[in-house]
Design brief:
366 residues; TIM Barrel; binds zinc ion; two-stranded parallel sheet
Length: 366
């Protein structure tokens, strides 16, 4: 575990042990919380698991739902929660469970647990991954780094071969590739480089999507259950704010159209791919509102409160992170204190003209 994760864990532990989190809760916990998940699957003991933060175990999912309810929260459908947030009705705190992307383990592993617990949840579907036309690029990179001892990237990056023979080298190589593909190059080039790497090293991207993602038939099975809300997550999973207006809105529209064609429903809720500042902007939030969405979810860390009621197209979420699957961390999340302190620290850093790196404490998501 790297330094950033140790700092994050220690900070939350301090909030817990000192009682500060519970002390602040009456002013910081707001009226509800939206939890974000990706994969639910058994724990792995693989030394190289760079996407481990995206995966929780079915046991932790069950524990979390029970714990959230024990703490007095009602688990609501996203529709109900957004209505309550906007109207201010309802006397009980509420929580919403969401899953991004459309992974098969949501159906095979998470669904039976949530069905048994009678807990509603939402799945935000990336239609291009269900169509098998888009690239599951962060998983492809993980697989390429895992299966090779050296990678040569073509094109713009100007990089020589990157060694990835040992677990340490694999982690460094993965981080370097994430920087290149997620920051240094434009979104379409990110996919072109991934495709070129997959071809050079014999990785079948279609087979990878088959392995990981639900099919439309599987999604239809899930969508038929009244417990499940289907949301939109674009067609190609680009960081929208890094695209031109035309390209961003076309990706939103196509994601909606494919869901309507295949599932016969029009999603009322949207989740921004990645959901962080680099992928979320007012231009697209306004477009989503004009397109008739009732809410749009970011991955800005935080709880729901009266301020979020005024910005339904940029609602915060709490990541149920695979690296922090403990009850004391979940309890601290529910106090809202870590997020209030994070905002205060950012605000202070800004006041002193310091470029804050606090956002790095909340790990990246997909
Ligand atoms: Zn996503």
């Amino acid at each position: 575990m790297d330094r950033r994760h140790r700092v994050f864990k220690s900070g939350l532990k301090l909030l817990n042990v000192s009682g500060l989190g519970r002390f602040l809760a009456p002013v910081t916990q707001g009226c509800g919380a939206v939890f974000m998940m990706h994969h639910v699957r058994p724990a792995s003991d693989n030394a190289f698991r760079p996407n481990a933060h995206l995966s929780i175990t079915p046991e932790f999912l069950r524990f979390s739902v029970n714990r959230i309810r024990e703490k007095g929260y009602e688990i609501l459908h996203l529709d109900e929660a957004v209505d309550q947030l906007k109207t201010g009705y309802g006397s009980k705190r509420y929580a919403v469970l969401t899953f991004d992307d459309g992974y098969r383990d949501n159906l095979e592993v998470a669904y039976p647990v949530l069905k048994e617990l009678d807990a509603p949840f939402s799945v935000f579907v990336t239609s291009g991954l269900i169509d098998r036309t888009s690239e599951l690029w962060w998983v492809a990179i993980e697989r390429l780094v895992a299966e090779n001892s050296e990678l040569v990237i073509s094109g713009q990056s100007g990089e020589g071969p990157i060694s990835c023979a040992t677990p340490e080298e694999k982690n460094r190589c993965f981080d370097r590739l994430m920087d290149i593909l997620g920051k240094d190059v434009q979104e379409p080039d990110q996919r072109a480089i991934t495709r070129a790497l997959a071809e050079r090293y014999g990785l079948d991207l279609g087979a990878l999507a088959n392995e990981y993602m639900m099919t439309w038939d599987e999604l239809r099975e899930l969508a038929a259950d009244p417990l499940v809300t289907i949301g939109a997550h674009t067609h190609d999973h680009f960081a929208l704010a890094r695209l031109s207006e035309g390209d961003a809105w076309a990706d939103i529209d196509k994601g909606m159209q494919r869901i309507e064609q295949e599932l016969g429903l029009r999603p009322r809720h949207f989740a921004y791919p990645y959901g962080k500042a680099f992928s979320v902007c007012d231009r697209d939030a306004d477009y989503l509102e004009r397109s008739g969405f009732s809410s749009a979810l970011t991955t800005f860390p935080g709880v729901l409160n009266s301020a979020s009621a005024r910005t339904p197209m940029k609602l915060p979420r709490i990541s149920l992170n695979g690296l922090y699957q403990t009850s004391d961390i979940l309890d601290q999340y529910l106090t809202g204190a870590p997020f209030a302190l994070y905002k205060a620290a950012n605000w202070l850093a800004g006041g002193f003209g310091i470029k804050s790196s606090f956002s790095r404490l909340f790990p990246s998501t997909r």
